[in-house]
Specification:
The protein has 161 residues and is an alpha+beta fold. Helix content is 26%, strand content 38%.
Length: 161
Protein backbone atom coordinates (compact mmCIF):
# COMPACT_ATOMS: atom_id res chain seq x y z
CA UNK A 1 0.00 0.00 0.00
CA UNK A 2 1.20 3.49 -0.84
CA UNK A 3 2.60 5.27 2.29
CA UNK A 4 0.80 8.48 1.35
CA UNK A 5 -2.55 6.70 1.31
CA UNK A 6 -1.77 5.04 4.66
CA UNK A 7 -1.05 8.41 6.27
CA UNK A 8 -4.23 9.89 4.79
CA UNK A 9 -6.32 6.99 6.16
CA UNK A 10 -4.75 7.32 9.63
CA UNK A 11 -5.37 11.09 9.68
CA UNK A 12 -8.99 10.55 8.61
CA UNK A 13 -9.55 8.00 11.39
CA UNK A 14 -7.95 10.33 13.94
CA UNK A 15 -10.12 13.20 12.77
CA UNK A 16 -13.32 11.17 13.13
CA UNK A 17 -12.38 9.88 16.58
CA UNK A 18 -11.48 13.33 17.91
CA UNK A 19 -14.25 15.28 16.17
CA UNK A 20 -16.15 17.59 18.50
CA UNK A 21 -19.28 19.34 17.35
CA UNK A 22 -21.89 21.62 18.84
CA UNK A 23 -25.16 19.67 19.10
CA UNK A 24 -27.49 22.42 20.27
CA UNK A 25 -27.55 26.10 21.16
CA UNK A 26 -30.56 27.28 23.16
CA UNK A 27 -31.56 30.38 25.08
CA UNK A 28 -34.10 31.02 27.84
CA UNK A 29 -34.92 33.46 30.64
CA UNK A 30 -34.04 32.57 34.22
CA UNK A 31 -35.77 35.32 36.18
CA UNK A 32 -34.27 38.54 34.79
CA UNK A 33 -31.19 36.73 33.45
CA UNK A 34 -30.50 35.27 30.03
CA UNK A 35 -29.15 31.73 29.94
CA UNK A 36 -27.54 30.40 26.75
CA UNK A 37 -26.67 26.69 26.73
CA UNK A 38 -24.13 25.44 24.22
CA UNK A 39 -24.25 21.62 24.19
CA UNK A 40 -21.52 19.74 22.41
CA UNK A 41 -20.30 16.19 21.84
CA UNK A 42 -17.48 15.49 24.25
CA UNK A 43 -15.28 12.68 23.00
CA UNK A 44 -12.06 13.63 24.79
CA UNK A 45 -10.87 15.09 28.06
CA UNK A 46 -8.83 17.74 26.23
CA UNK A 47 -8.99 21.38 27.29
CA UNK A 48 -11.99 23.34 25.99
CA UNK A 49 -11.61 26.87 24.65
CA UNK A 50 -14.83 28.87 24.40
CA UNK A 51 -16.00 32.22 23.13
CA UNK A 52 -19.49 33.63 23.75
CA UNK A 53 -20.23 36.80 21.87
CA UNK A 54 -23.17 38.75 20.53
CA UNK A 55 -23.60 40.41 17.18
CA UNK A 56 -25.69 43.55 17.05
CA UNK A 57 -25.70 46.57 14.75
CA UNK A 58 -22.88 45.12 12.61
CA UNK A 59 -20.60 44.78 15.64
CA UNK A 60 -19.35 41.69 17.43
CA UNK A 61 -19.11 42.06 21.21
CA UNK A 62 -17.28 39.35 23.18
CA UNK A 63 -19.13 38.49 26.42
CA UNK A 64 -17.03 35.68 27.95
CA UNK A 65 -14.03 33.94 26.45
CA UNK A 66 -10.74 32.23 27.02
CA UNK A 67 -9.88 32.79 23.32
CA UNK A 68 -10.47 36.57 23.02
CA UNK A 69 -10.64 39.59 25.29
CA UNK A 70 -14.23 40.18 26.51
CA UNK A 71 -15.79 43.63 26.86
CA UNK A 72 -15.59 44.70 30.50
CA UNK A 73 -19.20 45.90 30.65
CA UNK A 74 -20.50 42.51 29.47
CA UNK A 75 -17.98 40.36 31.35
CA UNK A 76 -18.96 42.03 34.64
CA UNK A 77 -22.63 41.07 34.03
CA UNK A 78 -22.01 37.49 32.97
CA UNK A 79 -20.86 34.11 34.18
CA UNK A 80 -19.74 30.88 32.50
CA UNK A 81 -20.43 27.37 33.81
CA UNK A 82 -18.56 24.45 32.25
CA UNK A 83 -19.67 20.83 32.44
CA UNK A 84 -18.72 17.66 30.58
CA UNK A 85 -20.86 18.37 27.53
CA UNK A 86 -22.16 21.91 27.97
CA UNK A 87 -20.95 25.48 28.30
CA UNK A 88 -23.58 27.71 29.90
CA UNK A 89 -23.54 31.51 29.70
CA UNK A 90 -25.61 33.60 32.08
CA UNK A 91 -26.06 37.29 31.31
CA UNK A 92 -27.43 39.07 34.37
CA UNK A 93 -30.06 41.83 34.18
CA UNK A 94 -30.97 41.01 30.57
CA UNK A 95 -32.82 43.86 28.83
CA UNK A 96 -34.09 44.64 25.32
CA UNK A 97 -30.79 46.44 24.69
CA UNK A 98 -29.05 43.04 25.00
CA UNK A 99 -31.06 41.48 22.16
CA UNK A 100 -29.11 40.25 19.16
CA UNK A 101 -27.45 37.22 17.67
CA UNK A 102 -25.59 35.21 20.32
CA UNK A 103 -22.65 33.12 19.14
CA UNK A 104 -21.05 30.10 20.80
CA UNK A 105 -17.61 29.17 19.48
CA UNK A 106 -15.77 26.13 20.82
CA UNK A 107 -12.28 24.82 20.15
CA UNK A 108 -10.98 21.69 21.83
CA UNK A 109 -7.23 21.19 22.07
CA UNK A 110 -6.10 18.44 19.72
CA UNK A 111 -9.34 18.51 17.69
CA UNK A 112 -8.64 18.40 13.98
CA UNK A 113 -11.97 19.86 12.87
CA UNK A 114 -11.22 23.45 13.87
CA UNK A 115 -13.57 25.77 15.71
CA UNK A 116 -17.22 24.84 16.05
CA UNK A 117 -19.60 27.80 15.79
CA UNK A 118 -23.37 28.11 16.31
CA UNK A 119 -25.56 31.18 16.69
CA UNK A 120 -29.06 31.93 17.91
CA UNK A 121 -31.22 35.04 17.61
CA UNK A 122 -32.31 36.25 21.05
CA UNK A 123 -35.34 38.53 21.43
CA UNK A 124 -36.48 39.09 25.01
CA UNK A 125 -40.23 38.99 24.34
CA UNK A 126 -39.92 35.68 22.46
CA UNK A 127 -37.76 33.83 25.01
CA UNK A 128 -39.22 30.97 27.01
CA UNK A 129 -38.65 30.66 30.73
CA UNK A 130 -35.96 28.18 31.71
CA UNK A 131 -37.46 25.00 33.11
CA UNK A 132 -35.67 23.65 36.17
CA UNK A 133 -37.03 20.13 35.70
CA UNK A 134 -35.71 19.89 32.14
CA UNK A 135 -32.23 20.87 33.33
CA UNK A 136 -32.48 18.13 35.96
CA UNK A 137 -33.57 15.56 33.38
CA UNK A 138 -30.81 16.43 30.93
CA UNK A 139 -28.02 16.18 33.50
CA UNK A 140 -29.26 13.28 35.65
CA UNK A 141 -29.55 9.60 34.89
CA UNK A 142 -33.07 8.16 34.67
CA UNK A 143 -32.35 5.73 37.53
CA UNK A 144 -31.53 8.59 39.88
CA UNK A 145 -34.68 10.43 38.76
CA UNK A 146 -36.76 7.34 39.49
CA UNK A 147 -35.25 7.00 42.97
CA UNK A 148 -35.85 10.68 43.68
CA UNK A 149 -39.48 10.43 42.56
CA UNK A 150 -40.39 7.35 44.67
CA UNK A 151 -41.35 9.38 47.80
CA UNK A 152 -43.61 11.55 45.64
CA UNK A 153 -45.23 8.50 44.08
CA UNK A 154 -45.74 6.97 47.55
CA UNK A 155 -47.30 10.18 48.84
CA UNK A 156 -50.03 10.00 46.19
CA UNK A 157 -50.51 6.22 46.76
CA UNK A 158 -49.33 5.44 43.24
CA UNK A 159 -46.68 3.02 44.52
CA UNK A 160 -46.77 1.06 47.74
CA UNK A 161 -43.51 -0.44 48.97
Amino acid sequence: MNPTISIAVILTVLQVTHCQRIKELSACLLGQNLRVDCRYENKTSNFLNYDFSMFKENRKRVIQSNLNVPENSLKARSNITLSKDMVCLQLFEFTNADEGIYICELKITGDYTGNQIRNITVIKDKLEKCAGISLLIQNTSWVLLLLLSLPLLQAVDFVSL
